Amino acid sequence: MQLPSNTDLDKAPRERRRHKLHGKRGDLFIHVRDDGSERGYVWQHTGGDIVRGYQRYGIRCRDLSAEAVYANEASSPRVEIPRIVIDTMQIVSNHLRAHDVAAFWRLFAEARKCGINGDVHSIRLGDLVRYLGLDSLLRAKQALVRLSSAEMTLRLNQRGFHGLVRMYMLKILHDTDDLASLGGSDTLYFRLPAALKAAVLESRDYTWVELNAMSRFKSKFTFPLYLKLCLAAGKDKLYRAIPVMTKPEFRAVVGMPEKTQTSVLDETLQLVCNELLAINGVRKRFPIHIAFADGRVTINVGRSSKKLREMKPAWIAPKVAAKLLRTVYNMPPEARVNFPPLMHFRQAETAVGVPATKVFDHWWTDIHGAKNYGIGAAGMEAQEFLDLIARVGAEEAFENWAEARDFGFVIDDEEVEQTAAVSVVRGLPVSERTALPALEQWQPQTLTYDDWMLKIPVALPDVDEAVDVDDAEIPF
Fold it and tell me: Which alpha helices (H) appear in 278-410, and where do they start and end?
């Protein structure tokens, strides 16, 4: 028998066996076992597919100093925190207070904005005081002193840091006399731990956390649980379940000492749950449901993807906008309050892929059917749908309706891809807003392009829809 030469072997085609998930990295694979049970796996990204922390911006806001304010009800900046930090971070020192921990994450956000790989970071003391909502500059300085003497641990596997690493949470580059002389307009210089910066720079999994939500926590034990809920809310629905916790497990999650008295543990558990449920307004990125049964705590969270009001509005022709505005303006006042501003319909077009005029028709039809024929909408009974509009207003009800409504096609239920350098504009901070007169629901703010026809109600019947308007003249 004659064996093939090496040249023949090189020329012979080789049958390469590839994994069933070849080319599908990042996709979800459901494995069905022999007993019929299922388990999900994610084919992880490798090499150039991974977007590391040093390639991401790490902050989502327009002006961090103006928006990270305790009294700001118009917007809430978000900071990116890696999963490895959320899962393994433990504050060892026991002398910290709630606003001390909030101050640490505010300094962390400032470092992310300026570039966390820098050696020294800076912040104005006045920005820190406004974020914490304190009435004294001295209390902010005392929080910084406590942070500089507090220690924390991280479990890492990064270059130069392996295993459990213990470090000081903050290093202030001022002596005691210098810190005491600083005013609100003066700049504070500080350093973050090198291990923490390494964890951020090399991280590939992360979550977005509402910065203004953390400044309102009154218990320092609320922070670790809230960060874990943010991480769970950003995952796929299959992985969003929070394990049911007993009281000892809850104590371990929030970092309470093992010898904590039962009465203190019960009081802390109730306080933490109340603070999580009290998150509202623009600071509430996802719904939280907490239940107690048989000494166990069950927490369910919703998804934290983009809300409708954060979507980029789609372009609409001026004559189409005039037609929709005239339609609503000619309605009786009791019917007009059921319609959100035109901007919401344009944002819904971006969210669901249906033209704004079609979304408007669907909304109008559902309201008409619920009022006159008792037809339900978006999975709700007719009266439930109408009560929702009356209870929370047309804008929030429209947002819930657009998410649940079937527009005749399949809506992609995947999570919104989190990319670098994304700025979400939700409105001006409270300090920059002016007092507005009481207006109707259809015009909740000063008249803009969306409501430009309302400026001339007498001339509405004379509007010529065929007028050709140059796009450059439209104040987008």
Answer: 318-329, 333-336, 342-352, 356-372, 382-392, 394-404
Asked if pLDDT for residue 122 goes beyond 60, the answer is yes
Which residue type does 434 have? T
Lowest mean pLDDT among 28-32, 122-126, 414-418: 414-418
Got the DSSP string for 279-306?
--GGG--S-EEEEEETTEEEEEE-----
Question: Which DSSP category does 218 fall into?
Answer: S
Q: How far is CA 262 from the centre of its chain?
A: 34
DSSP SS3 for 385: helix
Task: Count CA atoms closer than 13 A to 233's CA, side-chain side.
Answer: 24
Distance CA 68, CA 107 (A): 11
209 - beta bridge partners? 79
The residue type of 405 is R
User: Both tokens of residue 183?
Assistant: 């005013």
What are the pLDDT digits (tens) for 415-450? 333 333 333 333 333 334 334 333 344 444 443 444
- Among candidates 58, 54, 53, 26, which has minimal Cα distance to 42? 26
User: Using CA atoms in the order 394, 396, 401, 403, what is the torsion angle rounded to 10 degrees?
Assistant: 150
- 78: exposed, middle or buried (Cβ count in 10 Å: 0-12, 13-18, 19+): buried
pLDDT band of 38, cuts 50, 70, 90: confident
The DSSP H or E segment spanning 112 is helix 98-114
Q: How far apart are CA 46 and CA 74, in angstroms?
A: 39
Kindly state the DSSP code that residue 22 receives in the 8-state scheme: T
Token pair listed for 217: 């926590």
Closest CA to 351 of 314, 324, 386: 314
Look at the alpha carbons of 463, 466, 471, 473 in this order and tell me if their dihedral is positive or negative.
negative
- pLDDT beyond 90 at 147: yes
Q: Which amino acid is at 74?
A: A
In the chain, the amino acid numbered 390 is A
Place 272 in a pLDDT band, splitting at 50, 70 and 90: very high
* Under 8 Å between Cβ of 220 and 77: no
Token representation of residue 112: 């992310």
74 and 282 Cβ atoms separated by less than 8 Å: yes
Q: Cα–Cα distance between 194 and 197 in angstroms, integer?
A: 5
CB 41 within 8 A of CB 29: yes
What six digits make up the tokens of 434?
Answer: 């002016």
CA distance 193 to 198: 9
- Per-residue pLDDT tens for 166-192? 999 999 988 877 788 877 778 889 999
- The pLDDT tens digits for 238-249 are 556 677 888 888
